[in-house]
């Protein structure tokens, strides 16, 4: 990795500033259901900085401790939304606590895995005539990557290429087509939780809250949201990854399989498990400029979903 690339790599991994202690204490004491603070703390868990993880987990736990007392002292203004955010906060805090302490050996292993992943993705990108455009790892990366692609393809105007637009489109499509997503979403409260459907799948009210969280918060997006975005914008989404298959295709029209991935008009993003240290990440894949066409067929690269 060249020196310029190393510097860029370090900038991407720079710790995310966390809320100040005074701000945190004031928020916890005055409004332990503050959504903005919880969003900031969830976003901070994307950082590779162990101190940021510990601080975020501690504050999230303290918020959870304060919430029952706050609800007893005053009416719950947010109702079901605050309860949903509380569950999200508990999950985030538990995830942060489970992270293994960062040490030299672990860092070295992580760096090797990240380089192997980067090489594998770059190989596929070269075959497809693509180059990686890095997206900020802030919890909105999937939606930012798709928005960048939509602008590149002239589907939306450049000034509209923002994660808020993509989040809204995914949430609205999912809310309007619950039959396409509910069977694949487990209830956050478990199969015995209030409102859970058959076999522990998400219930109608919880599903509505789930869609609202996709629209309004920094909760991560995944396969359901990729499918929703593909259908909302009526365009295939190709996800390049280091695993098998190298390219996963989400096609809104359920079109027959094709090997002509390079020529197909599609949103193209990359999926990273290791490149950014903790959690999943997506980048946008833009066409290389002035690149000659590759004549070799790109078979065995796609897996339609």
Structural account:
The protein has 305 residues and is an alpha/beta fold. It folds into 2 domains: 15-98, no CATH class; 128-304, Cathepsin B, Chain A (Alpha-Beta Complex), CATH 3.90.70. The protein is built from 10 helices and 6 strands, in the order ααααααβααααβββββ. It has helices at residues 3-12, 21-30, 35-44, 50-73, 80-98, 104-128, 141-152, 163-176, 204-216, 223-232, and strands at residues 130-133, 237-240, 247-250, 267-272, 281-287, 302-304. It has a 6-stranded mixed β-sheet with strand order 1-5-4-2-3-6, sandwiched between helices. α7 packs across α8. The longest helix is centred in the middle third of the chain and has 25 residues, at 104-128.
Comma- or semicolon-separated keywords:
305 residues; alpha/beta; Cathepsin B, Chain A; 2 domains; 6-stranded mixed β-sheet
* Span of the ends, CA to CA: 35 Å
> What is the level-2 CATH architecture name of the largest domain?
Alpha-Beta Complex
CATH topology label of the largest domain:
Cathepsin B, Chain A
The radius of gyration over CA amounts to 21 Å
User: What's the order of the H and E elements?
Assistant: HHHHHHEHHHHEEEEE
Beta-strand content bin: 5-15%
Strand order of the largest sheet: 1-5-4-2-3-6
How much helix, percentage-wise, in residues? 40-55%
The helix count comes to 10
- Integer count of domains: 2
Can you tell me the residue ranges where pLDDT is under 50 for at least 5 consecutive residues? 1-25, 71-78, 192-197, 291-297
Largest sheet: 6 strands, mixed
Protein name: OTU domain-containing protein
Domain OTU: 130-288
Biased composition (Low complexity): 19-31
Pfam families: OTU (PF02338)
């Amino acid at each position: 990795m060249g020196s310029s690339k190393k510097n860029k790599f370090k900038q991407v991994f720079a710790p995310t500033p966390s809320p100040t202690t005074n701000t945190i204490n004031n928020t916890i004491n005055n409004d332990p259901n503050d959504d903005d603070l919880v969003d900031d703390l969830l976003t901070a868990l994307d950082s590779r900085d162990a101190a940021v993880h510990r601080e975020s987990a501690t504050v999230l736990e303290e918020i959870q401790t304060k919430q029952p007392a706050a609800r007893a002292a005053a009416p719950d203004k947010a109702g079901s939304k605050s309860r949903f955010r509380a569950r999200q906060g508990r999950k985030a805090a538990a995830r942060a606590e489970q992270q293994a302490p960062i040490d030299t050996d672990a860092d070295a292993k992580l760096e090797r895995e990240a380089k192997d992943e980067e090489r594998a993705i770059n190989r596929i990108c070269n075959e497809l005539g693509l180059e990686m455009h890095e997206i900020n790892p802030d919890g909105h990366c999937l939606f930012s990557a798709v928005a960048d692609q939509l602008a590149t393809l002239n589907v939306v105007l450049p000034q509209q290429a923002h994660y808020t637009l993509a989040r809204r489109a995914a949430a609205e499509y999912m809310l309007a087509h619950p039959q396409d997503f509910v069977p694949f979403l487990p209830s956050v409260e478990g199969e015995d939780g209030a409102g859970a459907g058959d076999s522990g799948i998400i219930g109608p009210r919880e599903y509505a809250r789930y869609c609202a969280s996709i629209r309004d918060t920094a909760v991560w997006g995944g396969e359901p949201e990729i499918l929703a975005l593909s259908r909302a914008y009526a365009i295939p989404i190709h996800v390049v990854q280091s695993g098998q298959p190298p390219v996963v295709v989400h096609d809104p029209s359920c079109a027959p399989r094709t090997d002509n991935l390079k020529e197909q008009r599609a949103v193209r993003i990359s999926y990273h498990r290791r490149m950014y240290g903790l959690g999943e990440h997506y980048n946008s894949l833009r066409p290389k400029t002035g690149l000659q066409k590759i004549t070799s067929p790109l078979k065995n690269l796609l897996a339609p979903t």
